[in-house]
Amino acid sequence: MIFEQRLKNEEKILFKLRYLYTQYGYQPFKMSKFEEYDFYARNKEFLVSDSVITFTDTHGKLLALKPDVTLSIIKNATEEKNTKNKVYYNENVYRVSGSSREYKEIMQAGLECIGDLDLYDMYEVVSLSAKSLGLISDDYVLEISHMGILSALLDTVTTDSEFKSLVVDCIRKKSEHELLECCEKYEASSEATKMLTNLIKLYGAPSDVCEKLKAMKVSKEFENATEELCQLCQLLKDTKEYKNIRLDFSIVSDMNYYNGIVLAGYINGVCECVLFGGRYDKLISKMGKRGGGVGFAIYTDLLASFDKECREYDVDVLLIHKPKTSVTSIQRAVEDLVAQGKSVSVQMSIPKSLRYKELKEMED
For residue 354, what are the domain limits? Predict the structure, then answer.
């Protein structure tokens, strides 16, 4: 119990996530820090950033620090009919940060389910993404979108790839004003404009949004994607996490990667998305594998700042000693406090940035 108390919040969360995933049959996946560069070069369109850190090994082979985990999991996945590869991981990746545009070491934890997927597998992964957020904080929101719905609507509206790209950007920004300007510029019909503006406004509880989606008459593909999403939401309805789930079609990603549901998770206290994932059958096919894939990643490096906000103190006791205080006296004082289950920082003066619950000063 004392050991658990001494762990930082993000460390406790990683232990809890590992336990959660093993309860549902997910096995640990561990990979090397680097792979052959050619492997990433062949699949660079699926990477978050195409800037990869490379180096030449002692045999002249070009290697890369791993910018992604999912690609390696797919490469190592076994293929057996009517089965799934279910793995979880806690890995660091190396890529350009979206905010700083500098190379960063990004800590991730997550899971992947690869193989012959069915509706239950989709439910399980989405449910585990919500449960994962709940282990971090009670105050969270899991937003769900479906790329099949957006793709079907865009195919109905236009065949112009440039127009599609601009529409996706408007939906991502939830800018109805820019969307209307875009539709006018490309001379979209009033019916097409109405369907797109209806989608951009859709946000809220799954049952409410599903009702509105089913009322939209777009195409058979749109209807099939809507049915899949709403069936998934119906399964989630009986879970305690359901109250934290919203449907939001501004959650869009690369259509070359995701072809089904897309997930984005947020917790109060962190301004960035801490969880992202979805279904990526196109990537599975591109890598020569059969079946489909679905998973998510939690950016655990973001939890360090969240943890600092959550913890009131860095240490229980700040123990200040004088220059001539005997080491034996300090040693005994520290061991006594540790035996009481308290954490101790020994200093000769008070550090400006250290938050402590109790101050103790020792004489010479």
Answer: 313-361
